[in-house]
């Protein structure tokens, strides 16, 4: 299984960006997919997650600004990020957890920089 993250970049404060995580296989094989982020010197933190049943959860810091969604036909999970703040700057990683083995898989990360 491979996860390919894309869509990061440089955006001004208040702007929007969408990152994508494309899986090499069917995302129905995962019971959880999520986006995490990490800045140098800090632990990787969960930003948003979505279960195979469609339930979502968000970090308090992004509630109301970020939306996670999945396109089963494209085997892709998206993170729509609106009203971006400088503190959202980080490397964003996608993660998937296999439904049968509970094995985690990680994508390679994509840099998101919020700066004027």
Description:
This protein is mainly beta and 116 residues long. The chain has strands at residues 3-6, 9-11, 17-23, 30-38, 45-51, 56-58, 66-71, 76-81, 90-98, 104-106, 110-114. The radius of gyration is 13 Å and the shape is globular. The strands form two sheets. Strands 2, 4, 5, 6, 9, 10 and 11 form a seven-stranded mixed beta sheet that branches. The chain has a four-stranded antiparallel beta sheet with strand order 1-3-8-7, with no helix packed on it.
Tell me, briefly, the overall form.
globular
Query: Uncertain regions: pLDDT < 50 for 5+ in a row?
Result: none
The helix/strand order is EEEEEEEEEEE
Question: What is the strand content?
Answer: over 45%
Largest sheet: 7 strands, mixed
The total of beta strands comes to: 11
Structural class call reads mainly beta
Indicate the mean pLDDT.
Answer: 95
Provide the helix percentage. under 10%
> In whole angstroms, how far apart are the ends?
37 Å
Q: Give me the number of helical elements.
A: 0
CA radius of gyration:
13 Å
Short description:
This protein has 116 residues and is an all-beta fold. Helices cover 0% and strands 53% of the residues. The chain contains no helices and eleven strands.
């Amino acid at each position: 299984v491979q996860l390919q993250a894309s869509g990061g970049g440089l955006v001004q404060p208040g702007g929007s960006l969408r990152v994508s995580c494309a899986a090499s296989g069917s995302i129905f094989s995962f019971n959880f997919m999520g986006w995490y982020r990490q800045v140098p010197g800090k632990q990787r933190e969960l930003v948003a997650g979505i279960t195979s049943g469609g339930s979502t959860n968000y970090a308090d810091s992004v509630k109301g600004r970020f939306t996670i969604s999945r396109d089963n036909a494209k085997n892709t999970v998206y993170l729509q990020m609106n009203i971006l703040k400088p503190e959202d700057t980080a490397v964003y990683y996608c993660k998937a957890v296999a439904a049968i083995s509970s094995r985690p898989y990680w994508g390679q990360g994509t840099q998101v920089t919020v700066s004027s």
